[in-house]
Amino acid sequence: MKFFIDTANLEQIREANDLGILDGVTTNPSLMAKEGISGNEAILQHYKDICDIVDGDISAEVLSTTYEEMIAEGETLAKIHPNIVVKIPMIKDGVKALKYFSDKGIKTNCTLIFSAGQALLAAKAGATYVSPFLGRLDDISTDSLNLIEEIRLIFDNYDYSTQILAASVRHSMHIINCAKIGADVVTCPLQPILSLLKHPLTDSGLEQFIKDSQKMI
Ligand code: E4P
């Protein structure tokens, strides 16, 4: 399973990348705005900076919602770096844009996926990734993991190469459950990745080993 970090914060991207387990980055307009990135030039420069840190797929989301505008914006984003993945919302014009970019060999990530039907349409249109949002489904008391299972089954039934990129991942159990189901990628903030490291028995065991190692010197 691939690990992407879901942030536009360069420091956190560097920290995750330094761990040696990072395969890519996802961003969205809210995450970019949180870092104070505004204006065309600053946006493009920020994506360049991310591409300089991480050697992997970097999702850059279009801000427009009409077919023509998404094509123009996506083409500009795709020119930044070969690792840029054009992130497109699951709307009617978005499906058409996915097909356009897929035909041109430009990678895409279809975002805001909340149903198996949406994922199926995006796969049919040739999306590289679909992003089902787990945490936001949990927030409205819906079984988000069941959605991942459904999408996995459908993609396997028809051998779709579209990858399931589990998004809106809030904690380490989301990551473990996605791995059990067979999501291709999880994207999440740095904290849930770091919390995979932690176990109280590891901490107490190491403390004891350090203590005992003093007797060996
Ligand atoms: C996915 O690509 C989104 O950027 C992200 O995972 C949304 O997460 P949130 O629901 O925690 O905002």
From TrEMBL:
Catalytic activity field: D-sedoheptulose 7-phosphate + D-glyceraldehyde 3-phosphate = D-erythrose 4-phosphate + beta-D-fructose 6-phosphate
One Pfam family linked to the record: TAL_FSA
Keyword ATP-binding (UniProt): no
Catalytic residues (positions): 87 (schiff-base intermediate with substrate)
Pathway note: Carbohydrate degradation; pentose phosphate pathway; D-glyceraldehyde 3-phosphate and beta-D-fructose 6-phosphate from D-ribose 5-phosphate and D-xylulose 5-phosphate (non-oxidative stage): step 2/3
Keywords for this protein: Cytoplasm, Pentose shunt, Schiff base, Transferase
Enzyme class per UniProt: transferase
Compartment(s) of residence: Cytoplasm
Enzyme Commission numbers on file: 2.2.1.2
UniProt cross-references to HAMAP family, sorted A to Z: Transaldolase_3b
Job description of the protein: Transaldolase is important for the balance of metabolites in the pentose-phosphate pathway.
Protein family: Belongs to the transaldolase family. Type 3B subfamily.
Protein name: Probable transaldolase
The organism of origin for this protein: Cloacibacterium rupense
Source organism phylogeny: Bacteria, Pseudomonadati, Bacteroidota, Flavobacteriia, Flavobacteriales
